[in-house]
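thread: overnight batch results

M.L. [08:02]
morning all. the overnight job finished for the chain we discussed friday. pasting input first so we're all looking at the same thing
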Amino acid sequence: MAFYDLDKTPAEAGTEAQVRKIARGEKLVVTRMELKRGNVTAPHSHQYEEVVIVLSGQWRFDLGRSPVTVRANQMICIPPGAEHFSETLEDTVALVVSTRPHADTYLQAQGVLTDDPDQYLWGV
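M.L. [08:03]
and the structure it wrote out:
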């Protein structure tokens, strides 16, 4: 069993435009993300399922169909292998829950969130 207090958990490396705090279980990773308006992810996919729960703000996702804007107290489930990209429409706070294995290796390979639209962002 692991216990995390996100108020006391140190933030992982990030940028001025984002802050993330990560809690790791055996098969799940939960990340609390604070994103400034305008953060963009390039189109990508991953082999694990991911759920994004927006606590405040607005985050638009495009999974190859009509874009979906996720607002406070709403969530989106991204299935494994689904190509997607996203943009924060407002300053946003969200929880990202994934079944991603080997979190540290994945984070090193992907880098950190950035507001540069040419860069891949972690997590979504």
